[in-house]
Design brief:
Length: about 325
């Protein structure tokens, strides 16, 4: 029986998610409903993607008994409010990254999922790519010896995009793209808490971070170095350096198709989209959708690829980075 999806949000990422779903067997996945702030927008989206039901409110979607899983693809600042709405309605949820604005909000979402006994996952889609599965396998086998240094970068000129630069919309490099570099480090170190975090950055006039550099030290003298920016392009790659070799994830590291291990390159091609996409390699969203389905079939309430404890740690790390750089959101004082 197919997993029946409801889309909370009819924006660019929901479009790409819908296109990605078309690359999966219809017997496994079906989008049965979409909700937006206006019924007209929801109907327009539903028509474009051949979705049977359109709702003009998120409450209607949350109460639809024919939905197995909700995909939450709205502004960062709305994840907490709408996430609680979905979870308290007893719905399973895949929530776009960042999970929420801070650790308090993330804690509320995790608590709500446990109280309702439903599945919850932060949509760090990178974790579900076949390439990243191979990276985890190589690390588990000590293919490059003892890891000494992890480096990750992500730069994308986005100063013209309101949601990237406005504080009220949850803007800044860290929450939008820096999160990918930090989650990569945590994946490599298997969810281990860093011993120390040192962050420095440059702020926009709006008070959000334009660029940031983060250095983390882990036990046994292991280091991680992340740098990210919404002002310039960067290599967008990641490197794991060990005592016996190097693993390199070529750009785009957050949705990768090219892996280099000690100089040997392997390609992991993606299926072609049926409609134009808004973001790079978005048909790769299919992997997180299938991960969710497999978790549901096994009766799991969270994904081993991106456990809730690791989402909580990731948010704690980002909170500390913001604190050191001086980025404060309204949500921090609530």
């Amino acid at each position: 029986m197919a997993t029946r999806w409801g889309l909370c949000g009819a924006g660019k990422i929901s479009h790409d998610f819908s296109v990605a779903m078309k690359t999966l067997p219809p017997g496994d996945h079906q989008i049965v409903a979409v909700a937006a702030r206006s019924l007209e927008r929801a109907r327009e989206f539903a028509k474009k993607h051949s979705i049977p039901k359109a709702y003009g409110s998120y409450e209607e979607l949350a109460s639809d008994p024919e939905i197995d899983m909700v995909y939450l693809g709205v502004l960062h600042t709305e994840h907490w409010r709408l996430g609680l709405l979905v979870l308290q309605a007893g719905k399973n949820m895949l929530c776009e990254k960042p999970f929420a604005m801070n650790s308090r909000e993330v804690g509320d979402l995790i608590a709500a999922s446990k109280k309702s006994n439903v599945f919850l996952m932060e949509a760090i889609w990178s974790r579900c790519f076949p390439l990243h599965r191979e990276v985890r396998r190589l690390l588990a086998e000590d293919a490059i010896g003892d890891i000494k240094l992890v480096k990750a970068s992500f730069g994308s000129p986005q100063l013209h995009i309101p949601r990237s630069v406005e504080k009220e919309l949850g803007g800044g490099a860290l929450l939008d793209i820096g999160v990918y570099t930090l989650q990569f480090v945590l994946m490599v170190f298997n969810g281990e808490r860093p011993e120390s975090i040192h962050a420095t950055g440059v702020l926009l006039n709006s008070g959000v971070d334009e660029s940031m550099v983060v250095v983390m030290k882990f036990a046994r003298n292991r280091l991680a170095f992340c740098f990210f920016s919404i002002a310039v392009s960067l290599p967008n790659d990641a490197t794991i350096s060990g005592t016996k070799g190097t693993i390199r994830v070529l750009g785009p590291m957050h949705c990768p198709t090219t892996l280099e291990v000690n100089g040997k390159t392997t390609q992991y091609p993606l299926p072609e989209p049926s409609l134009p996409l808004n973001f790079t390699n978005s048909t790769g969203l299919r992997y997180e959708a299938e991960e969710v389905r497999q978790c549901l079939l096994k009766g799991l309430k969270e994904s081993p690829r991106m456990p809730l404890s690791e989402s909580a740690l990731l948010t704690e790390v980002m909170d500390e980075c913001r604190k050191q750089v001086g980025v404060v959101f309204n949500q921090d004082s609530q």
